Amino acid sequence: FYLNMSKENLIRDSLKLINEKKFAEALQNLQDVSEKDANIYFLIGSIYISIGKLDLAEENLKKSEKLNNRNFSVFHNLGIIAGIKKNFESAKINFLKAIEINENIDSLSELGRIYSNENNFDEALKYFEKVLTKDPNHKKTNLRVGNMYFQMNEHKRGLKYIQKATGLIRFTNSGIEIIQ
User: Fold this and answer.
1) Cα distances (Å, whole numbers) of residue 132 to 58, 73, 91
2) What sign does the dihedral 158-110-87-96 (CA atoms) show?
């Protein structure tokens, strides 16, 4: 029992350090754990992404996945790494796995971005629309949709999303509101 308690405290302390951007300290704490579980490997992998050590990030996230393949954040982060490494097929597979477990906004938006970059606008829109249904004011996705419409030469339509992303207009129940 005591061991579990100290592991929980260690995770809590490490999360605090991560939030304070004290990555080296958090990493040291987590690496000192003798019996690492899926959560510890996940945190170690996530810290490595933050400091740009992608191979170590990937290695630890895969260890986490082996111990628990139901954590959508593991697959989301693997998707991010694959995208940075320009392995877009692998990125798509990982984002789809993340979405299968939890239809989260970030994975949906990342998937939309990849399809948009491949000029597969119909597929991109499918994922972007799911995001905007959940959160109509999601900044990153509104920006991505706006840029996609610009790529498609639909400038007026694109501008509407970009203005929304930059906070110049806001959609409310009574319509559109201009923000001063």
Assistant:
1) 30, 20, 21
2) negative
